[in-house]
Design the sequence.
């Protein structure tokens, strides 16, 4: 709920709104000085509200997490800095251990050299799909292969999806040819 600004000038209203939104950086006049906590450092309580925070409570407004998308936490940043500082030495040690027979180090090295396989290739003989009937025949064969256990249901589903895409493309091409033929027949002949 917005405060009542009926007795303020336009400049005062703008200033009050910027303060309410925590946008002290946009004020033409400097914001209130930040008091120093005991010991001479700024306490998180003493700091002016950041963007997205409510001035009255200092809490983030509903729907605002306070951290931009993709921002990393302090622990992650520190961990990355430490890892980068010793990355070369660490990698040499892992490679030395892998060559020495350490199975865990070998697994780590191989997993970084060879990406994991997403899907295993499936060897299935299907008829050429040129017409919608060919697509129906191919789907029937895939269903039979799943039923006999030669294909898993998820493998069969993926193949059927590809066949369906091919069938739609064939159907769209057929419809386009029919429409063009109808339009050609419907054109008046001028003489």
Sequence:
């Amino acid at each position: 709920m917005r405060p009542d600004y009926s007795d303020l000038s336009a400049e005062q209203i703008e200033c009050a709104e910027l303060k309410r939104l925590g946008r002290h950086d946009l004020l033409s006049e400097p914001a209130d000085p930040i008091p120093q906590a005991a010991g001479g450092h700024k306490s998180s309580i003493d700091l002016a509200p950041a963007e997205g925070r409510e001035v009255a409570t200092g809490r983030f407004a509903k729907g605002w997490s306070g951290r931009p998308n993709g921002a990393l936490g302090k622990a992650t940043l520190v961990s990355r800095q430490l890892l980068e500082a010793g990355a070369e030495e660490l990698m040499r040690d892992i490679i030395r251990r892998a060559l020495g027979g350490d199975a865990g180090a070998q697994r780590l090295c191989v997993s970084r050299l060879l990406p994991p396989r997403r899907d295993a290739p499936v060897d299935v003989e299907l008829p050429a799909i040129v017409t919608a009937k060919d697509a129906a025949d191919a789907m029937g064969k895939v269903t039979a292969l799943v039923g006999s256990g030669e294909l898993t249901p998820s493998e069969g589903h993926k193949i059927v999806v590809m066949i369906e895409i091919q069938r739609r493309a064939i159907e769209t091409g057929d419809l386009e040819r029919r429409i063009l033929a109808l339009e050609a027949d419907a054109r008046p002949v001028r003489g």
Remarks:
- The CA atoms of residues 35 and 46 lie 6 Å apart.
- The helical segments are 10-20, 74-85, 87-99, 103-113, 132-148, 153-186.
- Residues 1-69 form one domain.
